[in-house]
Amino acid sequence: MIRMTVLGILCWVHAAAAGTHSLHFFGVATSEGTGFPEYVDVGMVDDVQISYYDSTMKKPSLRTNWMNKTKGHEFWDRRTWYIRQGHDTSKWSLRNTIQHFNHTGVHTYQRMGGCELHDNGTRRSYLYHAYDGKDFISLDVETLTWVAAVPQAVFYKHKREANKAWKQISFNFYRQECFQLLEWYLQYGMETLQRKVRPAVTLMQRKARESAGTDVICHVTGFYPREVEVNWIRDGEALLEEGVWSGEVLPNEDRTYQLRKILTVSPEDQKKHSYSCQVDHASLDEKMDVKWVPEAALNMGFVAAGVLAALGLIIAVIIGALIWKKRASGARSPDYTPAQSVTPLQRS
């Protein structure tokens, strides 16, 4: 089921399996009076945004410099044509769908389509439509027929299937052009799209909030591509699921990613077992295992001693600075008598 809002469709990125490359496009048509552009289109290759367009712009914009090649202009002109067609189609679809539902007020019509290339040579292409974030209709690429998710979508099915020119355009794009575009993007964007960056792994611990145990945080960051597998292992062999909380894979500012997995360990288990965070990523020759070494709990005496030591250091620095200042300004001290100057005449 598709569940996308106007903003969510722009943020959603397909989580493809390792070894898969994808070209996705997302389009959203919105009723007037929302403050949003009436149409927005975003193009993505894997997890890299390559294009952006909204109805306030004269033409779509490129978001990558590796597309500025001679042959790239040919592909970009073709992609621009599809973006403009998507704009017109989505506006028409929104207007007619609102009528078939007999709705009033603010509504959205969303399109999500594209293609995938897998490392084993298999291919897949798709096109889904949603109305107000719910399944509306989808294209069966093999038969070029539409599958209506709700009765109100039947009008769209009949309209498109009766249009022979549109069926030929769809056949060309989803069977051929989409994959040609993706292969070209991968060729010229290799440094960006096919780079491999090793993750850095850090283990941190804290007192568990809802138990007497310890939360051990495995923070994996700086890796690319996005796909990563992070697991907590007990005694070097048992993969743990219970007591483990997993965060989402989040982007870093440098186009790498980060992920956290938190394991809660009871005081009893901490004494009986050993634990390690295991990371598997395309940049690694073999899985990375980072063993957790429990830290001694901080006590108030240790904290107090640390605070006193820090205060002592600060006081020593201040006293030293005062002494240095006093010596440097010795010429202005009351008990300092400057030597009598000797004129050239006295020397003779």
UniProtKB/TrEMBL annotation:
Glycoprotein found in the keyword field: yes
GO terms under cellular component: external side of plasma membrane; extracellular space
Q: What Gene Ontology terms for biological process does this UniProt record contain?
A: immune response
Instruction: Please state the span of the N-terminal signal peptide per the UniProt entry.
Output: 1-18
The residue ranges of the Ig-like domain are 199-291
The cross-references to Gene3D superfamilies, in alphabetical order and at most eight, read:
Immunoglobulins, MHC class I-like antigen recognition-like
- List residues traversing the bilayer: 300-324
This protein's UniProt keywords: Glycoprotein, Immunoglobulin domain, Membrane, Signal, Transmembrane, Transmembrane helix
Q: Which family does it belong to?
A: Belongs to the MHC class I family.
Known PANTHER family for this protein?
Answer: MHC CLASS I-RELATED (PTHR16675), SHKT DOMAIN-CONTAINING PROTEIN (PTHR16675:SF235)
> What is this protein called in UniProt?
Major histocompatibility complex class I-related gene protein-like
Q: Which organism is it from?
A: Acipenser oxyrinchus oxyrinchus
